[in-house]
From TrEMBL:
Highest taxon above the source species: Bacteria
Taxonomic placement: Bacteria, Bacillati, Actinomycetota, Actinomycetes, Kitasatosporales
Organism: Streptomyces pactum
Keyword Membrane: yes
Ranges for domain Major facilitator superfamily (MFS) profile: 22-484
Gene3D superfamilies: MFS general substrate transporter like domains (1.20.1250.20), Multidrug resistance protein D (1.20.1720.10)
Pfam families named in the record: MFS_1
Name listed for the protein in its UniProt record: MFS transporter
Transmembrane keyword on record: yes
Keywords from the UniProt entry: Antibiotic resistance, Cell membrane, Membrane, Transmembrane, Transmembrane helix, Transport
Length: 500
């Protein structure tokens, strides 16, 4: 054991005894960012009535955030590497709090849309700096597993917690508090960051890859915007097709430019690594299925079963608990002994199984016997998957690339969420419409047929989500070949930074 101890740097444990309190600060910031992807969902009907939004424009409360977040994450990751992770972390927190305050005080729809976009911009700065601070603070495999288990729990369960918090704040206070609540959280995290977090200065001599910023961010924004417009406009709409074509072209040129840029925005060796590429793909596919499930189950519980916002949020709690157990009690303990794919593959199989159970739901399904088992399987599967994805994707990266690597993990998560919401929602809506059109023969039965049609649309889309999760498990099994850290792989030890 002593040999192992000397092989691992002991200094961090002695030099930074408050690193676990530092993890609390990082986790608080990450929870705030993940919460904001869903906390506004349940408040949306109230905000729409209050500000007089049209049905066609209300989606921008959600889309403005995911567009800015997903499109600018790579830039945020590189800024963290250049400016310094702690400094970027604090700037992100302050900006996010200010944008939240503006959104909470919004008097027009445009003001709220702008504030949500601004939140996304600062979230894109905050999220990668938080993950890279975590990756460089915890380097010893046992501690790393525990820290990433906590982080993975927040990343996976934050969306469900957002539904609960959003429901409580909307029902008992006001929809504006779904935005105002970020201000005290951010203030606490800023104070904690100054007291507890440590970081080396940024690389002041390095340059920002400006063409890479425009190509990469422009391509991602085009794709995310295309998917967001596909649902209201249709997949064959000229604008949608143009956005997809522009996104593909811009991203292709971006990849070409990264091989020639003097200071590339995304060094291709980061994604050329088989394990990291497998983790990025697994994360994106897993989140496609998960976000689709959140969307359908929220509407199903409220509009079909008649749940209140608070009751809807509480219905997701068992899944949140299982994500916590899967991440901290199973994945964090086993990752030191087994390779990451031995957790990711079973995790995706369990999550896919939960989805298959949900395909059997009807207009009068019982929560305890037909919905709850599916949510438990989903939560356990996601808990088993998220933690090894985050840990493996950020392991063994040179410190100067830790920010951009962390950003790529988050980008795959946000882009997956945007694609999943748009793709599955379009399938559900079109399937429901065709079902209602073919079954509505007696006008007196309209209400029951419409309800059956809506649920039929959900179940068809959930079948696709189950297939996507199976594909995620297949990719994890074939691409993620890293071994457990205690079995001698260098992948979980930090790569020393080049002196030059």
């Amino acid at each position: 054991m002593s040999g192992t101890r000397t092989g691992q740097p002991a200094a961090p444990a002695e030099a930074d005894p408050r690193r676990w309190w530092g993890l609390v600060v990082i986790a608080l910031a990450q929870l705030m960012v993940v919460l904001d992807a869903t906390i506004v969902n349940i408040a949306l009907p109230s905000a729409q009535r209050d500000l007089g939004m049209s049905d066609s424009n209300r989606q921008w409360v959600i889309t403005a955030y995911t567009l800015a977040f997903g499109g600018l994450l790579l830039l945020g990751g590189r800024v963290a590497d250049l400016v310094g992770r702690k400094r970027t972390f604090v700037i992100g927190l302050i900006g996010f709090a200010a944008a939240s305050a503006i959104g909470g005080a919004a008097t027009t729809p445009a003001m709220l849309f702008g504030a949500r976009a601004l939140q996304g911009v600062f979230a894109a700065v905050l999220a990668p700096s938080a993950l890279s601070l975590l990756a460089t603070t915890f380097t010893e495999p046992k501690e790393r597993g525990k820290a990433f288990g906590i982080y993975g729990t927040l990343a996976g369960s934050g969306a469900a917690v957002g539904f609960v918090v959003g429901g409580v704040l909307t029902e008992y206070l006001n929809w504006r508090w779904c935005l105002y609540v970020n201000v005290p959280i951010a203030v606490a995290a800023v104070i904690g960051a100054f007291v507890l977090l440590h970081d080396r200065p940024g690389h002041t001599g390095a340059r920002l890859d400006v063409p890479g910023v425009f190509l990469g961010c422009g391509g991602l924004v085009s794709l995310v915007y295309g998917f967001s417009e596909a649902q209201p406009r249709g997949w064959t709409d000229p604008l949608v097709l143009a956005l997809f074509a522009a996104g593909v072209v811009l991203l292709a040129v971006f990849v070409w430019w990264q091989t020639r840029a003097p200071s590339p925005l995304l060094p291709l060796h980061v994604i050329r690594d088989r394990n990291r590429a497998g983790c990025f793909l697994t994360m994106m596919l897993a989140v496609i299925g998960m976000f689709g499930m959140f969307l359908f189950m929220t509407y199903y519980l409220q509009t079909i079963l008649g749940y209140s916002p608070v009751r809807t949020g509480l219905a997701f709690l068992p899944m949140t608990v299982m994500i916590v157990i899967g991440s901290t009690q199973i994945s964090a303990r086993l990752l030191r002994r087994v390779g990451p794919r031995m957790l990711m593959v079973p995790g995706m199989l369990l999550a896919s199984g939960g989805m298959v159970i949900l395909t059997q739901m009807t207009v009068d399904s019982a929560y305890a016997t037909e919905i709850l088992p599916a949510l438990i399987l989903m939560g356990l599967g996601m808990g088993l998957t998220f933690m090894p994805v985050f840990s493996t994707a950020t392991a063994g990266v040179a410190p100067r690339d830790s920010g951009v690597t962390s950003a790529t993990v988050n980008t795959s998560q946000q882009v997956g969420g945007s694609i999943g919401t748009a793709l599955l929602n379009t399938i559900a809506t079109s399937t429901s419409a065709s079902y209602i059109a073919s079954h509505l023969t007696d006008p007196s039965q309209r209400e029951s047929v419409v309800r059956e049609g809506i649920v039929h649309g959900y179940t068809v889309a959930i079948w696709l989500a189950a297939g996507v999760m199976l594909l995620a498990g297949l990719i994890a099994g074939l691409m993620v070949t890293a071994k457990a850290p205690e079995h001698g792989t260098p992948a979980d030890r930090p790569v020393p930074e080049p002196v030059a």
